[in-house]
Amino acid sequence: MHLTTMLGLYGALLTAGVRLPDPVSGTWWMQIPLRLLAAAALTGVLVAAFRVFEKPSGARESRAPRAWAGPAAALGATLVAVHVTAPASMARMPAGRALVERAGRAARG
């Protein structure tokens, strides 16, 4: 659901005419926390809305669910994902930038 949310968020920004900054620019890096918070909030709303449909039919809970259980689980999963994927992404970023710059120089001649 998080990818759907992120694509929806970018679609809404582009539809609203918001000009997105160039990737890996200073402005781009400064906006990342805001975009992640917006996507996390929207994901929480969507999880809460679709939770009813994902429960198997005939399943009964032994007691009323706590209101904070869903958001807490989403936060925990996000923290685990960032801990696992962020170092690998950061390690690959210089190589990606070098490839983009190399392709740009080759295109210019």
Task: Please characterize this protein's 3D structure.
- The protein is mainly α and 109 residues long.
- The protein has one domain (2-108).
- Helices cover 76% and strands 0% of the residues.
- It contains three helices and no strands.
- The protein has helices at residues 2-15, 26-54, 69-108.
- Helix 1 (2-15) packs across helix 2 (26-54).
- The longest helix is centred in the C-terminal third of the chain and has 40 residues, at 69-108.
- The chain is elongated and about 65 Å long.
- The mean pLDDT is 78.
Blueprint (SSEs and pairs):
Blueprint (H helix, E strand, L loop, with lengths): L1 H14 L10 H29 L14 H40 L1
Radius of gyration: 19 Å
The chain-level mean pLDDT equals 78
- Unreliable stretches (pLDDT < 50, length at least 5) are none
* Secondary-structure class: mainly alpha
DSSP summary, beta strand count: 0
Give the strand content: under 5%
Q: Could you tell me how far the N terminus lies from the C terminus, measured between alpha carbons in angstroms? A: 43 Å
Give the number of domains. 1
Could you give a quick summary of the protein structure above?
With 109 residues, the chain is mostly helical. The chain has 3 helices and no strands.
